[in-house]
Write a structure and sequence with these properties.
Layout: H1 4-9, E1 14-18, H2 24-31, H3 36-47, E2 53-60, H4 68-74, E3 80-85, H5 99-107, E4 110-114, E5 124-130, E6 138-143, E7 158-159, E8 164-166, E9 175-176, H6 177-182, H7 186-198, H8 224-227
Parallel strand pairs: 1-2, 2-3, 3-6
Antiparallel strand pairs: 4-5, 5-6, 7-8, 8-9
Length: about 230
């Protein structure tokens, strides 16, 4: 919310906001911060800006599946909302809600029409016509990060909060960019990044999954807050 003025000052045209729940207690439990009012106010201020697209990213869990309708209703006047399968980022079995389950839930709330997207688009995009408002058309995306992996289309790299380059969240291989920068080896960075991209794996190893949990044993993993970036 405090950076709203900077968005237009720096000509930012797209803003993604993570919002997994509209329930204050649930939001505080997930984020460990009691600040849902600030997030919602920030979203509303962004949507009021001319020429700026606001997208909401929501990771749906078993405990928040019943909130899907409320989140979609909130997104009525927002450019798009994208629902994301929860990815396992720890060594414990992780309950998750599959993309197919999310789609079925949406279909129970209105008419769902698949949109054509580019080959590099990681989200399956839909025009959602809610039963509660015949005039509304809501852009809804579903990102099947686990159950229908899109690794072959992924062109993402991540620099972690401690300066490590990762080609995939689920690959333990890291490249130390911080060390290169501190050693003033700037010409070497291009080579390192090119090497990281060329060694990007064809797919993650989260292949055995269903609507209850996946087994992440044997994978070198960290919490998202630790990865950062």
């Amino acid at each position: 919310e405090q950076y709203i003025d900077k968005i237009q000052e720096f000509n930012v045209q797209k803003v993604n906001v993570s919002l997994d729940s509209l329930n204050p207690d649930t939001f505080a439990k997930i984020t460990r911060v009691n600040a849902i009012h600030k997030v919602i106010n920030g979203i509303l201020k962004i949507t009021a800006l001319e020429g700026v697209e606001c997208k909401i990213n929501a990771v749906i869990m078993e405990s928040t599946l019943d909130e899907l309708e409320e989140l979609v209703r909130f997104a009525t006047n927002i450019h798009a909302i994208r629902f994301i399968e929860r990815m396992p980022l720890s060594n414990d079995p992780v309950p998750f809600v599959s993309a197919d389950t999310l789609l079925q839930k949406l279909e129970s709330l209105g008419t769902v029409q698949r949109k054509t997207t580019s080959d590099t688009h990681v989200a399956a995009m839909y025009r959602f016509l809610p039963r509660w408002d015949k005039r509304a058309v809501i852009n809804v995306g579903i990102i099947p990060a686990v159950s229908h992996r899109f690794c072959s289309k992924c062109n993402r790299l991540r620099v972690t909060s401690d300066g490590m380059l990762r080609a995939c969240l689920h690959d333990a291989t890291e490249y130390n960019l911080k060390k290169i920068l501190r050693g003033q080896l700037n010409n070497y960075i291009r080579e390192v990044i090119t090497n990281a991209v060329s060694h990007k794996k064809e797919g993650h190893s989260l292949m055995q999954c269903d609507d209850t949990a996946f087994n992440c044993s044997g994978m070198a993993m960290h919490s998202m807050s630790k990865i950062g970036g």
